Amino acid sequence: MLEHIEQTAPDIHDILIVRNGYLVLDEHYDNEYFARGKSRPVFSCAKSIVSILVGIAIDKGYIEGVDQTVLSFFPERTIANLDAGKEAMTIEDLLTMSTGFDCQDSYLYDWAGLEEMRRSGNRSQYVLDLPMAHEPGAHFEYCNGASHLLSTMIQRATGMSTFIFAYEHLFRPLGITRFSWGISPEGTNAGFAEVFMPPHDLAKIGLLTLNQGRWNDEQIVSAEWVAESTREHISAGTLADGYGYQWWVDADGYYMAQGLTRGHNMPDGYGGQYLFVAPQQNLVVVFAGELYDDDFQIPEELLNEYIITAADGAPTSMATLSEVAPPIEPPAWQWPTSSPEEQGMDPELLSDMLEYIEQTGPEIHTITIVRNGYVVFDEHYYDSASVYPWRSGAHNEPHPICSCTKSMVATLIGIAIDKGYIEGIDQPLLSFFPERTVANVDTRKEALTLGDLLTMSAGFRCGDDEDWRVLEQMIESGDQLQYMLDRPMMFQPGTFFEYCNGVSHLLSAILEKATGMSTSVFAYEHLFRPLGITNLTWGVDYHGITLGYTDVYMTHHDMAKIGLLYLNQGRWDGEQIVPAEWAAESTREQIVANRDSDGYGYQWWVDDNGYYFAAGLGGQFIFVVPQQNMVVVFTSLLFDNDYLIPEKLLNRYIIPAAE
Q: Are 243 and 222 part of one and the same domain?
């Protein structure tokens, strides 16, 4: 098989085979996007995960059963195209893709229904309002929206987001901590895609179902639910022999060997993400890749031609789950550590800070202090009983950094200018989008430059200083880039500071236009990979543009790397990652700010006391204090007046300890 892959060169990234509970093959093919063992999108494999969560919710009494009607979960909603069929539709009809909705998702070649749903601004309402084409339960029609309704119903039934419910009742028991899950505009986790996890963790999902819902002697989901989910409930037409509860079911293995009937349950994801479970061979197989059109089915062909054949005739035995071979992980770069005293810091003041935090109880998650290039203080306050996955007790798991994302994007702009993708900060905004028809064009908008975006002085009518109305409208518009290009002007560009999330999103869109790469790929190639940052995810908008204003998840240690990069004038391990001139220009006051600091640089806040910082909603901070050769990172869950507690701690305890 490996020789065949080498000769034909399909774009496969990972192949994992688990037999009898042991990891027997772990093949990784180098690619520019995903390092071995790192989180990646599983696409429609998310549907099968949602199905497991529905079973758990039924087991725990949150949901009555598969016969509960869909509309009973939405009593307050006004539903369009209501008829007897829609009123009778049940959870089982959603699970088996036999809703009767006129959905227009033909799975392989037509995503019209999915794109319309994504543009709608309220995905669950869009799906509920779809007209009916068939009686529920009578006709298989692949529909991403049906899976999204399942996620919405889990949230409504449990009172928890699907993300949190999954973490509490599925992922944490399986030891899955490095995952993220996309959020729809109405605040519901996507039920059809947008789950990111490493291939090894996807294999754990398969192993859970192979062992009838048990993991380390704990029944995570009932054996009855696993059996029902993975048997054929309805014919799937030309796509597969049948469909269960969000699992594809093949009745005969598509081929016969030694007279055995081979059934394998397949949750597959667009682009060639597969989780195969073959109970008769006691086998779990995971493929990850980028396979489209006719190549999409290559993993299944390899399964049938090589893997199942290799397993036939060999003895099988049920291994205990604790015997599963651990993932093969590359060695991680480690921060050098030292004591505060050795790096000239007063430990008594740092002790006083800890005492203050203990007495006042702000919800700070981590505090990391780097002095002279050494980690001298690394405190975390994770609550293992917390419902928040990024407070799960793991000391160095990814955390949402919220608007600290903006400072990352500014860094990438500097790199893009340095590499010749962008002319410079005086390049006009509209020159990047000549194909777009832009509303409210006047001389001010025509004069608006990249530099005006970087300094939050674009002149747009935005108002994110006062409320989040414009941000919400931008998200709900379905086309965040066009929404921002069309915004009316209020000021002459470059004359007035106006905090605006959409301005940062424009910067990301400019990066993608200028470089021909997504912002996240450009960031990985030119910023994150040189710094050894691989445990990271970054959200996108409906059109696939990387969000420029939020939605990066990274560890607090990796946040500190960004700070240290700037402290060292853009150099890392002897390599100039960011031009020193850009680092200096970004972090000096370019305009007077009217909110959280004295001034603003290029997407960095600048304080007159000699430090600058990246700041994110909820108390995420990267402070860089050049005079003390120091970087300080906070991750938190702090709002309203508590939001600035980290900066108070910096000024009251940390900087004085270094002086």
A: yes
